[in-house]
Structure formats: structure tokens, C-alpha cells
Design a protein that fits this description.
single chain, three-stranded antiparallel beta sheet, globular, mainly alpha, about 180 residues, 5 helices
């Protein structure tokens, strides 16, 4: 029996909203919100750790994730070097991220997930895939998908951690400049 598309019609606008918010945070001046950044670091680290557990069953998935985390960490360090810190009278301390790094990583992941969905969707629609034991592999059952997820995990954990560290330095420099 084919799957009814109504749940996907509800989830697609929600997914579009999440992607739009993620992309909008890659452009322009962003206020530094320490608690939100800490929560994001924890969430990304937990997601990365849970995905790494899949490596117990298929080591190639863990290798893809590890390669992505390491590459994402390097890109996160590059993103930190290209980030500027500013003080806005209305918003307080802000940072201006490099506009294309975070957006490019998000688009890469969305393209990959879209590709996997285009392969997976016909299998879900066919009646043979609905039979027990014939379910298609999940989204994360590909080393390339795990590499891209690892890229995001490594990038955002490194980037947000670095933002918090650099923000402390920025505050100290601002305090030192105001006392002189």
C-alpha cells in the first residue's frame, strides 16, 4: 500500500522554516547568545556521539562521520579566522560570520538528503518495499551522508566553541580599552 503524502506536506514547511532560520544565521551581524551557543554545542556533540554508535555495526559509517567531523573542525577554524566581532549599541556584542561557509555546508547536506530521498521515495511507494523485512536503508546508512552530517557537527561544535572563547577575549580587550 502506498504511503499517503499528507505527513510530508506538514513536515516540508517545517523543514523549510528550519533551513531558512539556519541560513539566515549565516549572513549579517548576529548577537552573541552564550546560553544558546552552549545548548547548540551540546546538541551537536550528542548527535555526533549517537551517530558514532552506528559505527559499531558498520565501521564504514563511523569512518565517514569521523572524516566529516575532522574536516568540519578545520572548516570551523577557518570560519573563526574570517569572523569579525563588533559591539552594537542596540544588540550588544555581536559577531559577523563569513557569509558563505555555514550556508554552503547547509546546502551540501540538503542536496545530499534530497538525493537520498529521491532514491528512497520510490521504494516507499512500491508495495514490495512495504513488506516486512524489505524496508529500504535509512538516511544515515551511507558513508557520504555520514560524512556530510559529520561535517556539520564538526563545523558547528568547533565554530560555536571558538566563538565563545574569542568572545571572552573580545570582552577582555574591550574592558582593557575602556580603562585606558
Amino acid at each position: 500500500m502506498p504511503i499517503h503524502p499528507s505527513p510530508y506536506l506538514v513536515l516540508l514547511p517545517l523543514l523549510a522554516l528550519v533551513v531558512w532560520r539556519r541560513l539566515s544565521r549565516s549572513f549579517g551581524r548576529q548577537p552573541i547568545r552564550r546560553k544558546r551557543m552552549l545548548v547548540r554545542i551540546v546538541i551537536f556533540a550528542v548527535v555526533g556521539a549517537l551517530l558514532a554508535l552506528s559505527g559499531w555495526h558498520r565501521p564504514i559509517l563511523a569512518e565517514g562521520l569521523l572524516g566529516g567531523v575532522l574536516t568540519g573542525g578545520a572548516i570551523g577554524l577557518l570560519g573563526l579566522r574570517l569572523t569579525r566581532f563588533e559591539t552594537d549599541p542596540a544588540r550588544g556584542d555581536c559577531y559577523v560570520p563569513h557569509p558563505w561557509i555555514g550556508a554552503l555546508l547547509t546546502v551540501l547536506l540538503l542536496v545530499r538528503l534530497g538525493w537520498r530521498l529521491s532514491v528512497w521515495w520510490p521504494l516507499l511507494q512500491s508495495s514490495s518495499a512495504a513488506a516486512p523485512g524489505m524496508a529500504p536503508e535509512g538516511y544515515a546508512a551511507s558513508p557520504l551522508t555520514m560524512l556530510l552530517v559529520g561535517l556539520l557537527v564538526g563545523y558547528y561544535v568547533t565554530y560555536y566553541s571558538g566563538l565563545l572563547i574569542h568572545h571572552r577575549r573580545f570582552q577582555r580587550l574591550q574592558q582593557g580599552a575602556s580603562t585606558v
